[in-house]
Specification:
By secondary structure, this protein is an alpha/beta fold. It is built from 18 helices and ten strands.
Length: 414
């Protein structure tokens, strides 16, 4: 976003409030920052810089309708500034208005050709709509926004590297790593490398070692140093489809690619269903993907199944036909999933793990969805053939109608 330099001909009071708001936002005190920008804009209502910064702050708070309103005001006042169109595009995307989002990104691209933020945001649109060749290409622009200190190391670009090590690394969330680790086997074959070394999140290291996904598995070290002797090339896991030219969904290795021994569960005479209704609370969009205990259980638990919690950090009071289990690691979580008949989950790492194992999984998808749940497939997924998607139908709908659909399917034995 625009830095806090003094715009011309603005009142000192408004500018002081703007500077305070920027500092509060940098401290992640977004509610307080929004209050300062509200005061600032009341004094100077037509300064595009303040409007853009306020829109950005509102987006961080998940107030996307207000975000869009102020972004469009900034665009109307300063249509030649690409940042306003980028903000408006992101707001439209968060409201599920994807075609409007694309138009804004294209407008921004005309004003600032090949700007990393514009190309990256447009890549999300393309991936969401299954335009993989263009989507993967522009998805690479994320590295121009967030460097990770790998530029001094030779990158693997799909060529054979016999005798060398291929170093692959995770860059985003746990679910992203589970989703893209499917490409490790093909990368090994294409590179003809001597060994594959994988760097992933700490929580996944013992699990990936257990299932033998690579020759060596590490967690990131301080400063992202690379623990490899001898010649090697590197690549981010999420760049592998682009590097290897995987633009056809048939190339996404849809067969199960994670297998574990199942956990022994007592016989109940009922089908066993695992449930995960919350994601990681620190996720930037967790409020839209997670479901409160009351809403979830009031709708789902009346069905004639034995339910098992796959929310390891959540302990609930005793409920009939509901089992709390200690699942301290992904190894235990996967073992439980292997023993279940079905998993019902919000969009979190559990969804990816169940899909990677080929387990029947019902995934609850918010309306303005992440690109991974391609809009070309309303109820299924090219990434996970065992998945069935239950989507919100409109922005702000809430989870009630989706959970009612899930309960109906459960009760019908579907």
């Amino acid at each position: 976003m625009t830095s806090a330099t003094t715009p011309t001909d603005l009142s000192n009071d408004a500018y002081a409030l703007h500077c305070e708001a920027v500092e509060l936002r940098n401290q992640k005190k977004n509610e307080e920052a929004a209050a300062k920008w509200t005061e600032c804009i009341a004094l100077v209502p037509d300064e595009p810089t303040y409007l853009r910064e306020y829109a950005d702050c509102l987006a961080r708070l998940g107030r996307y309708e207000d975000d869009l309103r102020f972004a469009l005001r900034a665009c109307a006042l300063e249509p030649s500034n690409p940042e306003g169109w980028l903000l408006a595009g992101a707001a439209y995307g968060n409201l599920g208005q994807q075609e409007n989002a694309k138009r804004c990104y294209d407008r921004a691209d005309v004003l600032a050709p090949h700007a990393p933020a514009v190309c990256f945001n447009r890549s999300l649109y393309n991936l969401l709509h299954g335009n993989y060749a263009e989507g993967w290409r522009e998805y690479e622009y994320r590295f121009l926004q967030h460097q990770r200190g790998r530029s001094v190391v030779p990158r693997w670009n799909g060529e054979p590297i016999p005798g060398e090590t291929l170093f692959l690394w995770a860059e985003q969330g746990l679910g992203d790593t589970i989703q893209f680790v499917r490409f490790v086997k093909l990368a090994r074959e294409r590179s003809q490398c001597a060994r594959v070394v994988l760097e992933v999140q700490r929580e996944l290291v013992p699990f990936f070692l257990d299932i033998g996904i690579a020759d060596e598995v590490y967690q990131p070290s301080v400063g992202y140093s690379i623990p490899i002797d001898g010649p090697f090339r590197h690549a981010g896991l999420m760049s592998l489809p682009y590097i290897m030219g995987l633009n056809d969904e048939a190339q996404f290795a849809p067969e199960p690619y994670i297998g574990v021994a199942r956990m022994e569960l007592p016989s109940t005479g009922r089908k066993k269903v695992g449930v995960c209704w919350r994601g990681y609370a620190g996720h930037t969009d967790d409020a839209r993907r997670s479901i409160t205990d009351e809403v979830f259980f009031d709708t789902v638990l009346g069905s004639p199944y034995s339910f098992y919690s796959i929310n390891p950090s959540v302990r609930l009071p005793e409920v009939p036909n509901f089992v709390n289990l200690d699942l301290p690691t992904f190894t235990e979580t996967a073992a439980l999933i292997a023993a279940l008949d079905l998993v019902i989950t919000v969009d979190t790492s559990v969804a990816h793990l169940a899909g990677a194992m080929g387990k029947p999984v019902w995934i609850l998808i918010r309306y303005a969805t992440d690109w991974r749940w391609c809009l070309n497939y309303p109820t299924t997924s090219p990434w996970y053939p065992s998945a069935r998607l239950f989507r919100q139908k409109s922005y702000g709908e809430g989870w009630g109608p989706v959970l009612a659909e899930v309960a109906e399917a459960l009760n019908a034995g579907n």
